[in-house]
Amino acid sequence: MIQSDPPLLDHYGALLCHSTQCDEPQSRLIMEECQLPLIDLSDLSSRDEMIRQACAAAICRASSEWGFFQVVNHGLSPQLVGKMRSEQVKLFQTPFERKAICGLLNNSYRWGSPTATCPKQFSWSEAFHVPLTKVLDEACYGEFTSLREVMIEFASAMSKLARLLAGVLTENLGYGKEVIDNICDQSTCFLRLNHYPACPISPEIYGLVPHTDSDFLTILFQDEVGGLQLMKDSKWVTVKPNQDALIVNIGDLFQAWSNDVYKSVEHNVVTNAKMERYSIAYFLCPSYDSSIGSFTEPSIYRKFTFREYRDQVQEDVRTTGYKVGLPRFLLEGTEDLTRRKVSNTTSQATVR
């Protein structure tokens, strides 16, 4: 029998035994490969105002048309990225029994999909989901002392980049760039270290099931293996890996705040039969009591706090196995007008 670490195969097998035909994953066709909009962030610091404005416009346009883009000259050195990748690999090579019980990184280790009730809700992956407030805490690292220094530097660089991009996007909406600094704090921003083990049993198993992100924006470092897919023009497309670039995607909160100017797009990760995959995601989130309201009227969504949004997402996943997300917060009478705009948020999804 094929062994897996963590015991993903055991969990998936149990779900498969209790599923009906309609619960099983649907076959996925070969997807076309896409090249995300590529933006050189060095242009934001150009002495030429027209170049700065063109760069900002490209960021906002990609956030509206794609919900995804990639950036180069982003401020993270290849040396830092390489050290982070090396430390991440060592961390995930730790035997499952120790990862699961030794309290590493604020006891944030997760694997598979605990709430899954059928195979199509199952994610073949493991992760550490670490709040920024714990990145500095020496007690979180145990024997992985060299990981702490790299994590601190990496988290700081990702946070700086996230706030730079969010500032461009908020300024485009008519807010000041300082708005994000005022409402986002370290207690709700996260680094998520992901590992997708090779999955030789079925090409139909997701590494991470289709979902949207419940934040303002996400910045992703991924390796050369690839596997990220996103919904574009009502079809899944595969993102071509670019080792020199970081990927940025809009989250649900920016879609609501922008009144659907920016798009939080459904995406997933597919498994690889022979190769494992690593990635690191930074999630820019507001404080739990921050109010999220559309910046223009008439508003599509009712006002809500981040705490209210997270609680609703978690309740939906707990009771149904799926994230509903923004459609829960549509104002009465806007459903028909926005059905096509929010269709990407209604498919099955996990909490991010």
From TrEMBL:
Keywords assigned by UniProt, alphabetized: Dioxygenase, Iron, Metal-binding, Oxidoreductase
Source organism, top-level taxon: Eukaryota
One Pfam family matching this protein: DIOX_N
The reaction(s) this protein catalyses: gibberellin A1 + 2-oxoglutarate + O2 = gibberellin A8 + succinate + CO2
A biological process from GO: gibberellin metabolic process
PROSITE patterns per UniProt: FE2OG_OXY (PS51471)
InterPro entries linked to this entry: DIOX_N (IPR026992), IPNS-like_FE2OG_OXY (IPR044861), IPNS-like_sf (IPR027443), Iron_ascorbate_oxido_reductase (IPR050231), Oxoglu/Fe-dep_dioxygenase_dom (IPR005123)
Family statement drawn from the similarity comment of this UniProt entry: Belongs to the iron/ascorbate-dependent oxidoreductase family. GA2OX subfamily.
Protein name (Swiss-Prot/TrEMBL): gibberellin 2beta-dioxygenase
Species the sequence originates in: Durio zibethinus (Durian)
